[in-house]
C-alpha cells in the first residue's frame, strides 16, 4: 500500500466516523442532552463507572477482531464490510472513551458542578 492509498483509507475512515457517531448518537441518545447518557445509565445499572461500562460494550468488538486476526493465519481476510464494522466500532468507542475522560477531567476541575448522572439516571428509572 502506498502512502497515498493509506491516506485515502484514513480519509474514508474519518468520514465514516463522523457519519456513524452522528447517527448512533441520535439513535441511542435521542433528545437526551447528555451525549454519554447510555454509558452513564448502563454504569448505574451495573454499579460501575461509565468508562467501565464502555469497556464492557467494546469488549465484544475486540474479541471479534481477535478472531478475525487469528483467521489470517489460515490465509483468510475479513470482508470490507466486516472490517468497517468491527474496526469502526472500536475506533468510535475509543473516541467516546476520550469524551468520557475529558468530561471527568472537567468535573474534577469543577467539583461543585458534579451531580452524578449515574445517581440521577438511577433515580429517574425507579420513579
Give a written overview of the molecule:
With 127 residues, the protein is mainly alpha-helical. The chain has one domain (3-126). Helices cover 79% and strands 0% of the residues. The chain is built from 5 helices and no strands. α1 packs across α4, α2 crosses α5 and α3 (50-72) runs antiparallel to α4.
What's this model, at a glance?
With 127 residues, this protein is mainly α. Helix content is 79%, strand content 0%. The mean pLDDT is 88.
Question: Topology of this protein?
Answer:
Layout: H1 3-29, H2 37-46, H3 50-72, H4 80-109, H5 117-126
The dominant shape is: globular
Report the oligomer: single chain
Task: Report strand %.
Answer: under 5%
Count of helical segments? 5
Spans of at least 5 consecutive residues whose pLDDT stays below 50 are none
> What is the alpha-carbon Rg in Å?
18 Å
Mean pLDDT: 88
Helix content: over 70%
Succession of helices and strands: HHHHH
The structural domain count equals: 1
Number of strands: 0
Q: Biggest sheet, in brief?
A: none
Distance between the termini: 57 Å
Structure classification:
mainly alpha
Amino acid at each position: 500500500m502506498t502512502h497515498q492509498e493509506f491516506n485515502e483509507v484514513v480519509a474514508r475512515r474519518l468520514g465514516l466516523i463522523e457519519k456513524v457517531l452522528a447517527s448512533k448518537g441520535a439513535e441511542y441518545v435521542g433528545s437526551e442532552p447528555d451525549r454519554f447518557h447510555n454509558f452513564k445509565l448502563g454504569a448505574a445499572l451495573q454499579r460501575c463507572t461509565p468508562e467501565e461500562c464502555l469497556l464492557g460494550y467494546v469488549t465484544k468488538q475486540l474479541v471479534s477482531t481477535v478472531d478475525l486476526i487469528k483467521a489470517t493465519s489460515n490465509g483468510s481476510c475479513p470482508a470490507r464490510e466486516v472490517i468497517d464494522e468491527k474496526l469502526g466500532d472500536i475506533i468510535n468507542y475509543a473516541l467516546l472513551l476520550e469524551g468520557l475522560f475529558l468530561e471527568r477531567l472537567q468535573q474534577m476541575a469543577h467539583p461543585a458542578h458534579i451531580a452524578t448522572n449515574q445517581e440521577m439516571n438511577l433515580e429517574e428509572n425507579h420513579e
